[in-house]
Design goal:
Elements (H helix, E strand, L loop, with lengths): L8 E3 H8 L3 H9 L6 E2 L5 E4 L2 H13 L4 H8 L10 H32 L38
Antiparallel strand pairs: 1-3, 2-3
Helix pairs in contact: 1-2
Length: about 160
């Protein structure tokens, strides 16, 4: 049976072709419940046409550094009963903008902290007399304590 332009479902191969991802990736996203699908009488996966946008959203979200768990949480806010509309996508876009602004602020803080810490040239918290005299950061826990947000003791 030939598909028509009005057919509300597309095959896994068509979804892969339209989005530029491998069939195995579509299958993976479906198995992770990131995409809505149904099975045909013959057991083939069929997707609503709106899955094209969902796959694009997944790809963009991954490029922005979101985990599949985070992406699933975002996608779960979209309606299941209808194709997401412009307002639905704008709501997610606003959420992205808030998160991106937060990431920029944290990266700026990290950049400034790196300039102070690595910029001194000693590259050793055990020997650093400026930011970590007597290895005082060790008492605050593992890892680069000052770069993780802990404050050095007052001089």
């Amino acid at each position: 049976m030939k598909k028509t332009a009005r057919d509300p479902r597309i095959s896994i191969g068509e979804l892969a072709r339209r989005t530029g991802v491998a069939v195995s990736a579509v299958r993976f996203y479906d198995d992770k419940k990131l995409l809505p699908s149904v099975r045909s009488a013959g057991g083939k996966r069929l997707f609503p046409r709106s899955a094209i946008r969902r796959v694009s959203f997944i790809l963009i979200s991954q490029r922005l550094g979101y985990s599949l768990e985070e992406i699933a949480g975002l996608l779960s806010t979209l309606p299941d009963q209808r194709t997401p509309n412009k307002a639905d996508w704008q709501r997610l876009s606003r959420q992205f903008c808030v998160d991106i602004d937060d990431r920029i602020a944290r990266l700026t803080d990290l950049k400034n902290a790196l300039t102070g810490c690595i910029g001194c040239g000693c590259l050793s918290l055990q020997k650093c007399h400026i930011y970590n005299p007597s290895d005082s950061a060790a008492g605050q826990g593992n890892g680069p304590r000052y770069l993780m947000g802990d404050n050095p003791p007052e001089s």
